[in-house]
Amino acid sequence: MFLRNYWYVCAWSHEIVRKIMPRRILDEPIILYRTEGGAAVALADMCCHRQLPLSFGTLVGDTVQCGYHGFTYDASGQCVRIPGQSQVPANARVRRYPLVERWGFAWVWMGDPAHADESKIPRAHWMSEPGWTAVGDLLPLACRSDLIRDNLLDLSHVTFVHQATIGTTMVAETPVVTEPGEASVRVVRAMKDIEPPPMFVRMGGFTGRVDRWQIIDWTPPANIVIEAKALPTGTNDWSKGVITEVINFITPETPHSCHYFWAQARNFATENMGLSKVLHADVTRTFLEDKDIVEAQETRMRQFPDFETVDARFDSGVAHCRRIVKRLMAEEAAARHA
Amino acid sequence: MFLRNYWYVCAWSHEIVRKIMPRRILDEPIILYRTEGGAAVALADMCCHRQLPLSFGTLVGDTVQCGYHGFTYDASGQCVRIPGQSQVPANARVRRYPLVERWGFAWVWMGDPAHADESKIPRAHWMSEPGWTAVGDLLPLACRSDLIRDNLLDLSHVTFVHQATIGTTMVAETPVVTEPGEASVRVVRAMKDIEPPPMFVRMGGFTGRVDRWQIIDWTPPANIVIEAKALPTGTNDWSKGVITEVINFITPETPHSCHYFWAQARNFATENMGLSKVLHADVTRTFLEDKDIVEAQETRMRQFPDFETVDARFDSGVAHCRRIVKRLMAEEAAARHA
Amino acid sequence: MFLRNYWYVCAWSHEIVRKIMPRRILDEPIILYRTEGGAAVALADMCCHRQLPLSFGTLVGDTVQCGYHGFTYDASGQCVRIPGQSQVPANARVRRYPLVERWGFAWVWMGDPAHADESKIPRAHWMSEPGWTAVGDLLPLACRSDLIRDNLLDLSHVTFVHQATIGTTMVAETPVVTEPGEASVRVVRAMKDIEPPPMFVRMGGFTGRVDRWQIIDWTPPANIVIEAKALPTGTNDWSKGVITEVINFITPETPHSCHYFWAQARNFATENMGLSKVLHADVTRTFLEDKDIVEAQETRMRQFPDFETVDARFDSGVAHCRRIVKRLMAEEAAARHA
Questions:
Q1: How far, CA to CA in Å, does C83 sit from each of B18, B172, C220?
Q2: Rounded to 5°, angle at Cα C214 from C209 and C218
Q3: Which residues of C touch A90 (CB under 8 A)?
Q4: Which of B114, B168, B314, B320 has the smallest CB count inside 10 Å?
Q5: CB atoms near residue B237 (< 10 Å)
Q6: Could you report the per-residue pLDDT of B68-111, keeping only the tens digit for each?
Q7: Shortest CB distance from C160 goes to which of A53, A70, A92?
Q8: A69 and C150: CB-CB below 8 Å?
Q9: Which parts of chain C register pLDDT below 70?
Q10: pTM for the full model?
Q11: C-alpha dist (Å) from residue B238 to B129, B204, B231
């Protein structure tokens, strides 16, 4: 059902503190907390004794004490104390999930820990690079993660859904170029000499027409970075333009819901906190418009799971992405059976 | 599960305006709207591109533009525009349902369009006939449509459920005469020299005893017209009596809910708007009492679907109706397989 | 799914009055009412005619009149009247469940009536014995009944869950002695020379250390009596101590919810109504803490029904109880098939 041998964002780093936080990832309940030494930890959210969620328990130093009978686990998931007895059986343990913090996100590995290779964490370097700043948030969506992935891979929808921020007629009317990779997809839309949409006016102060680009990069399982940029038509001077990197990490919560982590990084007006506030509000508004759409899709897909959809020309990126995911799912399934 | 080759009321005509309205009929989501020329249209409420409900879209002239990527459909269900491309594939379309307006109702055909014969629309001529007036409404019920059908076919329940409006002891105690047809059922109950129930007093101003009749006509799938009338006992003078036609069209919404369209037509005091208000309130109150009953039945039937019920003598109409529906269902199933 | 040939508490006796009360027992809907002569009656909550819950009906003398078409049942469940006809078919009846009142509880027999032997009703004599008084209540729990049974059979949890009332560290640290019977389990925990927990201070006015006992007796299906007592360490004088009998009768409502009937009987300060109020509040608070726990367990057990739990040493009573229940379930299943 889910691709497993990948790093998934389970939280913003700043969400993980000295307090147990529950979160469901790939339909598995986990807890997240930070040790006294500052390390972020992910454990299964279910005591091995009576299945009580450990999120009902207490953090005692670096250990988690179950809120029912006091089984106590260290940060590796091993039970280290059972009240009323001096020995703890070796099988008294809960699953620990590898967890790495990078770019301000906490990445959890839901597959075979032997393959948890940190070098496979997707790049989101703009989050911490000098000369850049970012706003971001977590938006819960009551739909399968595929739907927001497809939404981002085909931006022709901004014409119809996001008139108030980033949509103009020209987006849907401009053809895209799709560059399929072995395990990646790039979709490029170059819009020359067009009216800038409202949010770009707010960012760039444009008074005339612009050249605008959307460069979408997808990598599995559901990492999408969109370079969205514009500059005045006829100039080639990026100092008069704006470049944003819209970072999207989508993590399934259940088969029918997901955690949508997003950030918008920019390399201009990086000290302008007022602009940051405006952009956070603009992007949130934009993505809440998507939320209505994808959640309505989800209800139809649940009733009509076998419906044969009709693709449009601008769906080439989505189609290629689906083929890759299907192949990767088959490969993981084959590996599990082997 | 449902009889399909029938006309079902999907809306009151006045509900269908220049705005997209969603409604679920036989568990299929549809949209209803009116063209600039005034024609009522019923289409499937799901874009063929990404399954978004078209009720999230916009009416543009006589076409419906999907709210996601702008696929645009004409009133026949054919997609006539896909942004960013000049050609539209022939299979880009949504189902159109035949729709006819008559007697103030909009009738939709959920079966094979080839058999959508308008002459099969049930008669409800009192809705528009000179000398008659009517009140009516739509009541949503959280029960399978059979339950309100059975309710109306066996009015002995009014004695126990509707004391405040149309129930008196004599209803349940008076035997009925059932006249079974090939694809229809008539149930007649003649109550002579009885106390009139409260609503009839309000309608007819009776001060003494009355003769009262209930003549129930069912035709498939779930059309029931009840001629409910009374006049002073001992007179044969209908100018001193009241005649009402209670029109009931029941349309399944899901397997466990239905749309109950009702109207009460009368041929007296037709200009009396005050009486119309009172009667609308009286009938609504009466049917809300039924709603409690049938929805409670539904919960038991879902837990005990195979429970063998015990019929009473006054169930002859219900029993005959069920046999006919069973036969018609079998005939439709056979025709589908052939 | 449930043990059936047992007496289950379906209500407090005082809940059953001259009014129809619905309650679900072992997933069967029943009604409870009291006849004019004072006898408590349990019938199936579904009319045999159209499956309407009889709890929508009316008590007429000792009979129940259905709220839909007036089928009327006597206290044996036999239909004695159908409006509009003089004869009532013999199969027009609803199930009557044997019901006995004892110790202030109403006990219903959900199995084969031929085996409804009153002598098998569990003892709770403290509820009515001179020199004793009791507080008690009904707590609805959204979990399978096993979970609150296991909770009561292993009181080591009070250390972690009930610090405000009956929990101290020593409970979980003191080993138990389990005395398994053929169809019973006793678990004894003797805690010598310990700090008394808050509720015991409130009951006994202890100023120093105490000896404290928990003696838990389980019998099937889910009857648990806990003798919880304490007296000042070093004395053997029970006139300075307190003895309570905590009576727990747990009745499945559905596979995933139960009725938890509890009482706390005491043999001291029996006239002190103020203390009774305090104890009712203390025990309620304590059991509401359990409610949070067991309902959270239930959600995990529904998602992970086959999870293999790890037992602790203090689980010997729980383990033995489960083995007995498993054997009794198998015996009932075998008897049904024979």
A1: 51, 6, 45
A2: 175
A3: none
A4: B114
A5: 9
A6: 999 999 999 999 999 999 999 999 999 999 999 999 999 999 99
A7: A70
A8: no
A9: none
A10: 0.95
A11: 19, 11, 6
Which of A 99-118 lie inside 8 A of C, CB atoms? none
Report CB contact under 8 Å: A304, B85: no
Nearest CA distance, C294 vs chain B (angstrom): 26
Of B46, B70, B82, the CB nearest to A159: B70
List the domain boundaries for chain C. 7-119, 125-335
Distance between the two ends of chain C, CA-based, in angstroms?
Answer: 18
Give the tens place of pLDDT for each residue, B256-308: 999 999 999 999 999 999 999 999 999 999 999 999 999 999 999 999 999 99
Give B313's DSSP letter: G
Q: Do B292 and C70 touch (CB under 8 A)?
A: no
CA distances from C108 to B60, C99, C222 (A): 65, 4, 14
CB–CB of C161 and A29 under 8 A?
Answer: no
CA-based nearest distance B101→chain C, Å: 35
Enumerate the residues of chain A whose CB falls inside 8 A of the CB of residue B49: 309-312
- CB contact C88 to B (< 8 Å): no
Contacts of B60 in chain A (CB under 8 A): none
The chains found to touch C (3+ Cβ pairs under 8 angstroms) are A, B
| Topology of the domain covering B7-119 | Rieske Iron-sulfur Protein (2.102.10)
Paired residues of A44 in beta bridges: A30
Task: Give the SS3 label for residue A72.
Answer: strand
| Superfamily in which the A127-335 domain is placed by CATH | Naphthalene 1,2-dioxygenase Alpha Subunit; Chain A, domain 1 (3.90.380.10)
Residues B138-147 have pLDDT tens digits of 999 999 999 9
pLDDT reported for residue B164? 86
Which residues of chain B neighbour A311 with C-beta distances below 8 Å? 49
Output DSSP code: residue B129: -
Domain C125-335 falls under CATH 3.40.50.1000? no
- For residue C40, what are its two tokens? 């408590």
- The residue among A156, A310, A318 with the most chain B CBs within 10 A of its CB, best to mutate, is A310
pLDDT means per 10 residues, chain A with 338 residues, are 97 98 98 98 98 98 98 98 95 98 98 96 96 97 98 96 89 93 97 94 94 97 97 92 97 98 96 96 96 98 97 95 98 93
